[in-house]
Amino acid sequence: MSRLTQQSSDDNRFILVAKLDNARNLLNILKAVHFKESATCFVSSNGLKFTVEDAKCVQANAFVQNGIFQEYIFKEESATFRINLNVLLECLNIFGSSKDTGTCTALKMCYAGYGSPLILMLEEGGVLTDCSIQTQEPDETLEFDFSSAEVLNKIIMKSECLKEAFSELDMTSEVLQILMSPDNPYFRLSTFGHAGSTHSDFPKDSDMVESFECQQTQTNRYRISLLKPSTKALQLSSKISIRMDDRGFLSLQYMIINEDGQVCFVEYLCAPDEEVDEEDEEDLS
Amino acid sequence: MRFRAKIVDINCIQHFTRVLGTISRMAKMCALRMTPTKLYFILADNAAVGGVSIWCELTQSNFFDEYRIEGKDETNNIYLELAPDNLARAMKSAGNAQAVKIKLTKKHTPCLTFEITLPSLTSHTRSVVHDVPVGVIPQRNWEEYEEPAMPDFDVSIYMPSLKVVKNVIERMKNLSSFLILAANQNGDMTLGIDTDLAAVTTHFKHLDMPTWEGDNSSQNHNRDPDKMAEARVDVKKLATFLHGQQVNPSRVICNIMHGKAVQFLLLHEDISLQYVIPAVSL
After folding, report:
1. Could you tell me the superkingdom of the organism this chain comes from (chain B) (predicted)?
2. How many Cβ contacts (< 8 angstroms) between chains A and B?
3. Is the ipTM of this complex over 0.90?
4. pLDDT digits (tens, 9 = 90+) for A201-214
5. CA A126/CA B4 separation, integer angstroms
């Protein structure tokens, strides 16, 4: 019997005890939001949410619902702490095991409440690692007020067809312009770099598009440096939902299927960079 | 002073290349001592400033088909100073060589000349020549390169799977510059880091203990078997050793001198390699 599965009387002092047979299921989803050193972790009885923000303009959320864990006990209403994501990822990957080697690292994660460190116990092949990661005072996180009622345009598509477009984004462009429209060209990604402009159009009736609900033509620009990190989530995901609300705020939701076939979600929210002025719109048409 | 040697067996050529590759990853400069029966690669950095020391010993007859040495006096020793990477690069040409001849030559500086004979499709063989400049170490300095005495270690233990250790150390290297290596005589070993951000410790259990003959372990007998001996070392130097070795040793022994140093002994049928990392205090 693995040492991690033994119930220890010590567990009583923790408000959170979560066990996972394959630590990569947590590691991979956290990698999808790892573009800053620190994350804020929200704990509830439904699971964990890790939030990472940059420049007060972009927010990434990784949802690790309780169903991902083999055992999940949380005794309070809620808890919030900030944690160094670099350190957490190194610890989760301490044995460096990968899908290819066919080995799994078992994980037990405990938290005793405000001011306490996050305790990780990892085991692989009889070798045990214990980690105690300091938690920090949580920062206030951004509230984007993104509600589905205000969404004007929404496309759900297979991630496959966006992967190339995002991994080859022209980073000399300051912005990524996204057009969503009920009319041709429906969905267009544009960059304006040193070597010229690029436009990638995605037809609405291809096999790749699962749902296309666009009510009104919207063209918004987003800082490319803020959206580029979302490529990490895109690469891991199988489906993506792209939504724009009436203020031009962008929501990218990624459906990620982990090694055990469970579904997890990662979300990127981004504020638009600036209003597109009349002249530019004429250029496009 | 003369030296010439020849390897023809492809397995020996490749093995010798791996040994040179290992040394070149661990040391920028080192001494090469040649005697009628052995070759030694020696690095004796100043431990007081955190330098590692390396002692690697090869039996010449396991590698060479011809081997002739004439030193300055009847001891028949030659000591050279060289960059092992240059030797490793010379041997890179010998991946499928029919023969490698190594000679001490006098060009405009003393050189170890590698003459590598490569097969070709025609009846003429091709040959590649590398001249590796070396410095000859005068006899009055030889004593700096003597074999280090077996240290008075507190605990001697076989290392766990190097693959696992390498992964763990690679992660810990990203978290801290120093690592605490500890072990006891009950087969327990821990690798740990402790910083403001996190404390991480990996525990290995049920490791084998080597048996030592002679008196250098005499003080271990009255030691409490559960008592850990530990040394805080530069994690990069540990990683250099683990990643540098290309000889796939059958076993690696780790000797800990509490608070002073860690010695690794890499055991392989044809070669033996010692690597000593001094401990760093807080």
Report:
1. Eukaryota
2. 62
3. no
4. 999 988 899 999 99
5. 51
